[in-house]
Amino acid sequence: MDQLKPTSANSCPLTPLTFLERAATVYNDCTSIVYNETTFTWTQTNRRCLKVASSLVRLGICRGDVVSVLAFNVPAMYELQFAVPMSGAVLNNLNTRLDARTISVMLRHCESKMLFVDTHLSVIALDAVSRFPPGIRRPVVLLISDHSDKFGENLTGSIDSLQNSTVNGVDIFTTYEDLVEKGDPDFDWVRPISEHDAITLNYTSGTTSSPKGVVHSHRAIFIITFDSLIDWSIPKNPVYLWTLPMFHSNGWSFTWGMAAVGGTNICLQKFEADDVFAAVNRHNVTHMCGAPVVLNMIANSPNAKPLKNSVHFLTGGAPPPAAVVLRTESLGFIVSHGYGMTEVAGVVVSCAWKEKWNKMPVKDRARLKARQGVRTLGLTDVNVLDTKSGLSVKRDGLTQGEIVLKGACLMLGYLKDPRGTAQCMREDGWLYTGDVGVIHPDGYIEIKDRSKDIIITGGENVSSVEVESVLYSNPVVHEAAVVAHPDKFWGETPCAFVSLIGKASLNDIIMFCRERLPHYMVPKIVVFMEELPKTATGKIMKSKLRDIANNMSKRTGMSKM
Question: Which residues of the chain are under the pLDDT cut of 50?
Fold first, then answer.
């Protein structure tokens, strides 16, 4: 069989963009997008994406150019996940919580040619572009307008008056809908030459270090999308509620996944717990995703009521505390737990559920569900390695090491950062995640912490995740995060930051922990805050909390900040 070789017929580049073509044929008159009173079918969505892609090419976008998007979960944001790469460009979603300085740095780093901006974010976007130094080419700004929304800031004057104008020294060329109107619905979209061509550029959230530009290929996104649909057992025609920001790893690749299965995308511009319950009941939502903080907000909503129909909720980004899982599932949500990172574009380790676990007590089920689990089908391998020996740790659920991954769904690398790429993707064939975990006897992996979040007190390792889990089991605790506080005697001691939904004193929190944790793991300092700082993807920003802890004097408690 040695004479058999790949041909052009059997080695076509894999790309998730083909999902939209098929959806327009199979699910042509099915609803693709719902946003307030606006609805589209899959035929309409396909035509709109083709028209935008053709307009981008007409405006000079070439293969490999970077086109950035700064927008909420609105229809245009969803369409651009297809339209931008269909023009041959690389899609760069920017998170909506970043400040103008950071956005400006990212736009310059990736040499973005165009920037689509939700009008509600126009002030910060124009500020970002205006910060470009003289002589550095600025991206062309195009506005995504939505006159029906009550949220956000509006530019002075009408959208029509802003077209082909200059604001704060920034040229505003046209609007998104103008591209749709003038585009070609029969456009022959630009297909990748190689399936290893770049399709997306996403910057990491920067919770532990400076953001890096993660580049993914058409092949990786194709595989992770299929993988996620299979692992979550998503059927045809699901109703998907967009509580997860689409800019967060392209919505964990469910932007393309919903086209593959003909799903209905229910778009929400802003996340409010009450709006979630209303949308779930109004549209008969079947699936939604979000970080554990979203679960927490839903569970603690004063207007929370049991759902009419159960909803599958996929969470990830941090280990969900068992207490939060229990509260959410009591409302009718079926919680699944997955693990991924920007570098893998979606969920690659999931807590594959076993039927026999349903017979266990609820607390045990919640504890099992908080584990990250086993590799998904699309990942080649996952392991936990001892950082000194490079060997797998014991499968005892106790011995800790760094979680490592390998597979076709991994990133191509960090943009313009060969050193960072080499540090993450090493010559031994593994991608090193920076997450500390254990392997249980049944082969399931559980994260214990980020490598930078392990607290070493008196020679003992303290997992901040374990302490946080205990704090979350307190019914008056709304949010919790634990970081290291410098200590001259112990080296470091645990410092807890909490926000409350009830009343509790410093002593109440410390005594609660003492009853449930070894003495050395009990927080020595508790800081009460109205709300813990978060990244745009809902992760608690431990880097900021570490700065606070490092700069505070040693004391056993603090007033609210």
Answer: 147-163, 167, 206-209, 555-556, 559-561
Joined together, the tokens standing for residue 73 give: 């979960």
Q: pLDDT by residue (tens digit) across 91-134?
A: 999 988 888 888 999 999 999 999 999 999 999 999 999 999 99
> In this structure, are strands 114-118 and 346-350 parallel, antiparallel, or unpaired?
unpaired
Burial bucket for residue 306 (CB in 10 Å: 0-12, 13-18, 19+):
exposed
Q: What is the 3-state secondary structure (H, E, C) of 364-414?
A: HHHHHHCCCEEECCCCCEEEEECCCCCCECCCCCCCCEEEEEECCCCCCEE
227, 204 contact by CB (below 8 A): no
pLDDT computed for residue 222 by the predictor: 98
Q: What is the pLDDT of residue 155?
A: 39
Phi, psi of 157 (to 5 degrees): 95, 170
Identity at 64, one-letter amino acid code: G
Spatial distance between the Cα atoms of 481 and 264, rounded to a whole number of angstroms: 36
Do residues 66 and 87 make contact, with C-beta atoms less than 8 angstroms apart? no
| Residue 67, C-beta contacts closer than 8 angstroms, at least 6 positions apart | 56, 61, 84, 87, 89, 90, 91, 92, 112, 113, 114, 115, 116
Domains in the chain: how many in total? Answer: 3
Q: Of 450, 478, 505, which closes a domain? A: 450
Q: Determine the pLDDT at residue 151.
A: 34
pLDDT of residue 207: 41
Residues 211/88, Cβ–Cβ less than 8 Å: no
Euclidean distance between CA atoms 498 and 480, whole angstroms: 4
Q: What is the DSSP secondary-structure string of 299-341?
A: HT-TT----SS-EEEEE-SSPPPHHHHHHHHTTTEEEEEEEEE
In sequence order, which residues have a C-beta less than 8 Å from that of residue 442 and are 6 or more positions away? none
End-to-end CA distance of the chain: 71
Where residue 106 sits, what CATH number does that domain have? Answer: 3.40.50.12780
Q: pLDDT tens for residues 299-329?
A: 888 888 899 899 999 998 666 777 888 889 9
Say yes or no: 290 and 405 in one domain: yes
Evaluated on CA atoms 483, 486, 492, 498, the torsion sign reads: negative
Average pLDDT, the chain: 88
132 is in which domain, residue-wise? 39-203
For residues 493 and 524, the answer to whether their CB atoms sit within 8 Å is: yes
pLDDT digits (tens, 9 = 90+) for 267-292: 998 888 899 999 999 999 999 999 88
What letters, b where the CB count within 10 A reaches 16 and e where it falls short, cover 80-98? bbbbbbbbbbbbbbbbbeb
Report the candidate in 301, 312, 293 with the shortest Cα–Cα distance to residue 277: 301
- Of the three residues 150, 170, 203, the one that is the final residue of a domain is 203
Whether residue 313 is found in the same domain as residue 278: yes
